[in-house]
Write a structure and sequence with these properties.
Number of strands: 0
InterPro entries: NAD(P)-bd_dom_sf, Sc_DH/Rdtase_CS
Shape: elongated
Number of helices: 1
Protein name: Short-chain dehydrogenase
Organism: Amycolatopsis lurida NRRL 2430
Structural class: mainly alpha
Distance between the termini: 30 Å
Order of helices and strands: H
Amino acid sequence: MNTSSTGAQAIFPSFGVYVASKAFVTHLSKNLRADLGPKNGGGITGAPSDPAATVPRLPPSSWT
């Protein structure tokens, strides 16, 4: 299982590297499934997990 993010499908200013890395994980997972899945004699059937956004319990002053 690969953990991606909803950030892979959105644009977040100042988070370009983060969202690009998550988009990479999403697309790599989908391509591995296509290349190595049951239709091609392989056993990969999974998909990337894109957890929803969460609100941190830490106070905003500790976010930086």
